[in-house]
Amino acid sequence: AQKITQTQPGMFVQEKEAVTLDCTYDTSDPSYGLFWYKQPSSGEMIFLIYQGSYDQQNATEGRYSLNFQKARKSANLVISASQLGDSAMYFCAMREGRRSARQLTFGSGTQLTVLP
Amino acid sequence: GAVVSQHPSWVICKSGTSVKIECRSLDFQATTMFWYRQFPKQSLMLMATSNEGSKATYEQGVEKDKFLINHASLTLSTLTVTSAHPEDSSFYICSARLATTDTQYFGPGTRLTVL
Questions:
Q1: Yes or no, beta carbons of A108 and B42 under 8 Å apart
Q2: Confidence band for B31, pLDDT divided at 50, 70 and 90
Q3: How far, in Å, CA of B85 to CA of B100, rounded?
Q4: What is the DSSP secondary-structure string of chain B?
Q5: Which of A8, A103, A110 to mutate to test the interface with B (most CBs of B within 10 A)?
Q6: What's the pLDDT tens digit per position in B50-83?
Q7: Which residues on chain B are in Cβ contact (under 8 Å) with A107?
């Protein structure tokens, strides 16, 4: 079974609107962390936001927020007020507590295009 | 903070030669670094976990004799692609783990083309 599932290969959003990128995960470990990274066409992976499995509040970082629904095992990324520079590939990733090397498992990614 | 550099950003080499890629954490120490490979339009595939002062741990299917990893200091890990072949052409990207936040920060990647 896929550990991280991103069901939207591509998404379009109008500039200044909000967009939600979906991510569901699968783990039996009670301790885990969820990450979102942005990869522009230049290739670098930019860390956006982190949510721990024990965190009570949904994580927020500026225009990014994470809609964490633990029972549904989903960790959707919400980008508010989209900007043209938000056009990029977005990856959801998970770190499971039992993996002592702290490795990340990545989803297949969602290509977001912001339209002017 | 948490900046990771990677050098070179791109390299073209002839088949049969070896290529070394450096990954440095510029403003933090990283006992653990990771090496990934990414094909076009695909996700990142973990190749190996690099631990400072010890041998790297390779993922299944990754040839350790072909992809040599050295993590000689807390700020530097190197990946050497030995006897490169055209099928090794790919985007290689490293990350360094910031222990205080347990977050991986990525380098800008290296695009390798083997002719």
A1: yes
A2: confident
A3: 39
A4: ---EEEE-SEEEE-TT--EEEEEEESSS--SEEEEEEE-TTS-EEEEEEEETTS--EEPTT--TTTEEEEEEETTEEEEEE-S--GGG-EEEEEEEEETTTTEEEE---EEEEE-
A5: A103
A6: 988 888 999 999 999 999 999 989 999 999 999 9
A7: 43
